[in-house]
Amino acid sequence: MKPFSAIYYVKENKGRSALIAAMFFLTTLLLMGGNFIQSNYYYWEGIIDCTERMVEVEASVEDENFADYYAILEQLGKDPDLKVMRHSGYAAPSLDWKCTMGFTMGGYAVRFNTPEDMIEAFRILGYSGDLSGVHDRSLVVSRAMADNRGRKLGDIVDENDGLAGTYTLDAIIEGNTYGVFYVENFPEEKLMRAHVLSETLSYEELFARVQEVCAGSKCKIQQSFRAMINSQFEPINLIFYLALFLLSVVLAVSVNSVLSGHYNKRLYEFGIYRAIGRSKGEIRRKCAAEILLADLVSVVAGIGLVELITFLLNELYYIPGGRYLPYWSKIGVIGVAVSNICVLIPSIWRRSRAMCKADVTEF
User: Where do the H-state alpha helices sit in 78-135?
Assistant: First the structure.
């Protein structure tokens, strides 16, 4: 191994290199921070998937005698690619849940007028579970939702849980959908909304077909939750990115301070390199290689530790309680990458520039 190589220096100066690596290690904590932020989206993924596979048409109070609404349902019902299920126009309160970050979330519910409609809808949506016990005033939630709320089959759920009536938890479906599904039978004149589903059309095709039929009418079409959820979480993302910027600045200053003291003690070493003919390009590459090596080792070790901690948190705490912390997230990866870049670029540039000026005759 050549003495001029970065690996040789790190091997011979483990203590100093470990100190530098420890500073870079702090940047990997942004991965876990980003994962916690991203966990908010996890709870809405199943709900968004549901809303993007089932279009809801609602009658409008402006529609006198609901003529438009009935005409549209009749037209949609004639389409062999569509399945129309009417249900009550009354609002259906949902159950709240505790998210990974500790605060309460919730607010989505789907109502079916008959058990047969729910069973058919779940088949189309791909939800699996034993629905044989479902009847009027039944409540159905996912396994994750039941664990999150500490509920089991047969439990009574009522106004104390934020609902508008008393229901029985009669089925638990598989998956991580944090919505609430009702079966609640209403008389004909109260069925002022309809779910429109399709086994053959994509959501885009389904929505376009329903929209075409509803064009010019007084009926309303419910939009997907995706845009709404993204807009609600934008402030949280902004706070994270602001914290990322501030942490990157603090780390850049701290790492540069540590590296400054570290490399100032090596001015004589680099002066000798210059005296024996090493070019400035070689000096720059050596400094860059040493700093990058320390960063690489610390980032790999840091990410490994973050993943291990995430695994333990999930298996021992979050998953048993119907929650989940993602192992990776776009926000977290961006945080680690940006922070490292903000720290590495000035560190390499300043240290390599200073070492290129080392002159053995000054010592």
Answer: 115-125
Element containing residue 97 per DSSP (H, E): strand 96-98
What pLDDT score was predicted for residue 144? Answer: 94
For 28, 68, 158, 178, 280, the CA distances from 155, given in Å and listed in that order, are 43, 41, 10, 17, 75
Least confident of 10-14, 52-56, 218-222, 296-300: 10-14
Q: Is the pLDDT of residue 65 over 90?
A: no
Residue 1 inside a domain? The answer is no
How confident is the prediction for the chain on average, in pLDDT?
A: 87
Quote the number of domains for the chain: 2
Instruction: State whether 193 and 62 are in the same domain.
Output: yes
Angle in degrees, 0-180, between the axes of helices 280-313 and 330-356, rounded to the nearest 10: 150
Q: Which residues contact 62 (CB under 8 A, 6 or more apart)?
A: 218
pLDDT, residue 166, reads: 94
Beta-ladder partners of 104 = 98
Alpha helices by DSSP H, 185-225 = 203-214
Residue type, 190: K
Kindly state the DSSP code that residue 181 receives in the 8-state scheme.
E
Q: Does some domain include residue 347?
A: yes
Residue 38: strand, helix, or coil: helix
Q: What is the pLDDT of residues 327-345, one digit of tens each?
A: 998 888 888 888 888 888 8
pTM of the model: 0.82
Provide the token pair at 220: 């309303």
Q: For the ranges 119-123, 140-144, 166-170, 244-248, which has the lowest average pLDDT?
A: 244-248
Instruction: Judge if 340 and 322 occupy the same domain.
Output: yes
Domain that holds residue 280: 6-42+229-362
